[in-house]
Design brief:
Number of domains: 2
CATH topology of the largest domain: Alpha-Beta Plaits
Order of helices and strands: HHHEHEEHE
Radius of gyration: 20 Å
Structural class: alpha+beta
Strand content: 15-25%
Distance between the termini: 27 Å
Number of strands: 4
Shape: elongated
CATH superfamily of the largest domain: Lrp/AsnC effector binding domain/regulation of amino acid metabolism (RAM) domain
CATH architecture of the largest domain: 2-Layer Sandwich
Number of helices: 5
Largest sheet: 4 strands, antiparallel
Length: 150
């Protein structure tokens, strides 16, 4: 793990809040000259601490009305089963995140669909057809008090 000083932490915090902030404004907020600030940002990018920049999308305007987290248990706990499951999930555009987790389930998925009916279709036609899947527990998001992605 890379140890960062207070200024680098501030740079990362500002960029996480607004990835399109100008270098001049960023330098002002963190108390550096623009050239020193740019060097720091470039070093954070070079070392891979900053992996990239993203746009924050309005899900409602894109027709996404249902977000669900799904805990998936596999029937077979082998590497072969995991690889087959992950290959199938990667091909599913509804799945926005797939995490191999510890605990009662092997995977936690974040799925986005137009509505509950579209989620049911995904549940039945995708997850329900995978031979590796033993259990599916769905948690539909009703509201989000905090989501740093939005």
């Amino acid at each position: 793990m890379n140890r960062l000083d207070r200024i680098s932490d501030k740079i990362l915090s500002e960029l996480e809040s607004d990835g399109r902030i100008s270098n001049l404004e960023l330098a002002s907020r963190v108390g550096l000259s623009p050239s020193a600030c740019l060097r720091r940002v470039q070093e954070l990018e070079r070392t891979g601490i900053i992996k990239g920049y993203r746009a924050i999308l309005d899900h409602g305007k894109l027709g996404i009305g249902c977000i669900a987290y799904i805990a998936v248990g596999l029937s077979d706990h082998t590497k072969k089963s995991q690889v087959a499951f992950e290959k199938a999930i990667v091909r599913s555009p509804e799945v926005r995140e797939c995490h191999n987790v510890t605990g009662s389930y092997e995977y936690m998925l974040r799925v986005e669909t137009a509505d509950l009916a579209a989620y049911k279709t995904f549940h039945t036609d995708v997850l329900g057809t995978l031979p590796q899947v033993n259990s599916i527990t769905t948690y539909v998001v009703m509201d989000s008090a905090k989501d740093v992605r939005s």
